[in-house]
Amino acid sequence: MALLCRASAPSTLLLPPPPTPITGFSNLSCFEKCSSVVMIGAIGRRRNKLIQTRRFALVDEQDQVSFTQEENSLIEALVGTQGRGRSASPQQLTDVERAVKVLEDLKGVPDPTSSDLIEGRWQLMFTTRPGTASPIQRTFVGVDFFSVIQEVYLRSNDPRVSNIVKFSDFIGELKVEAIASIKDGKRILFQFDRAAFSFKFLPFKFPYPVPFRLLGDEAKGWLDTTYLSPSGNLRISRGNKGTTFVLQKKTEIRQKLLSAISTDKGVLEAIDELISTYKEKGIGEIELQEGEWQMLWSSQVETDSWLENAANGLMGKQIIKKNNGQIKYLVDILLGLKFSMVGTFVKSDTNTYDVTMDDAAIVAGGFGYPLELGSKFVLELLYSDDKIRITRGYNKIVFVHLRTDGTNQK
Question: Is 298 within a domain?
């Protein structure tokens, strides 16, 4: 997404620079104030679920799509990556970079700029340096609540590449457009020439206050497509400042679920779709996998009791140790204090386990204060892979967990 950059900028950017630097809210430009209000309003309208869940790459709901083995390695690395790479762990970055290199060596579609497959709307899933842009630009790219889209239309009387920041279906979007031309089989040249906000609550567009004609070379850049999948669903691009971008047209089904969780919209529908797809593949018995699993979402309505939420597994991590049949809930409280609850699990039937939780405590360092808490319930595995697990547990609550102790583990 070199359109995510300006030629003389210190890094690859999503948008052209605001006309004034940010030094405090009182000094913000009209654009920056408007953007801040939009961001705060959008986030403020989001209904929280039990805990402040982690944010994940935001994608529009689209039809399910399959990927090759090498492409799927990249998809696996992207699942659970926060802020489109902004908050990725070193291991996640390593996994993504390795998978990107494999695909670039395969090359994909020859001369991608000459292929019709490059045309259309692309969702930004990952970028290697989203934190090096200006504060407003960094907010747009790094916040999963916003959807970031690139449109590529080269085969028209007015060839263009555009970037769109979609705040929400109810608020609107910011669209930055550039005149585009093809240099060779993989490079697109572009020059920004117009941009505007489109708010649902206004009958007109609000101009993005940047004088593109006066920016000269700073409004220009280029974008290399280093991999375009034969299916036309996955693209890897590098901008003129070296930043790497991973974009998709159609979204892998687990990413759709994470998107639904991040926006708190259509989660149950996404869960049903994932489970149905899993069943259609005819995969048999699944096992409770060992490791650390972060609770992302549950169907339980939030209660007033923090302790009750923690004791029922509605917060924090779940740690599974198969060698001794141990299950543990661990919740960070504050100032080094943790809530811990330990129990055991025994397989009772296909995809089901009997769980007994009977050892709870508030822990600080090597010391613990015991609590009189306990419960017994049946844990049913509805879906599980190396990254995501869906279960039905205590009081028939449905849970979605994400594995946090590494990637590509078996």
Answer: yes
Assess whether 219 and 322 both reside in one domain. Answer: no
Asked if the structure places residue 31 within a domain, the reply is: no
Nearest 5°: phi and psi at 272?
Answer: -60, -40
Torsion of CA 56, 57, 61, 66, to 10 degrees: -110
Torsion sign (Cα): 345, 346, 347, 353:
negative
Closest CA to 12 of 173, 193, 163, 172: 163
Do both 122 and 238 map to the same domain?
Answer: yes
Residue of 241, 212, 247, 249 whose CA lies nearest to 2: 241
Does the structure show a pLDDT above 50 at 48?
Answer: no
In this structure, the number of other CB atoms found within 10 A of the CB of residue 48 comes to 9
Instruction: Tell me whether residue 273 is exposed, middle or buried, using C-beta atoms within 10 angstroms of its C-beta: 0 to 12, 13 to 18, 19 or more.
Output: middle
Q: Are 239 and 1 in contact (CB under 8 A)?
A: yes
SS3 304: coil
Residues 311 and 199 in one domain: no
pLDDT tens-digit readout, 216-255 = 777 788 999 999 999 999 999 998 877 889 999 977 888 8
What pTM, to 2 d.p., does this model score?
0.68
- In this structure, the answer to whether residues 179 and 312 fall within a common structural domain is no
Q: Tell me what the mean pLDDT of segment 346-354 comes to.
A: 93
Range of the domain at 192: 67-250
- Would the pLDDT of 56 be above 90? no
Q: Does residue 184 sit in the same domain as residue 286?
A: no
Asked if residue 121 is part of any domain, the answer here is: yes
Which pLDDT score is estimated for 343? 96
Cα–Cα distance, 246 to 256 (Å, whole number): 16
Judge whether 212 and 16 are in contact, CB under 8 Å. Answer: yes
Q: Give percent of the chain with pLDDT exceeding 90.
A: 40
Share of the chain above pLDDT 70, in %: 76
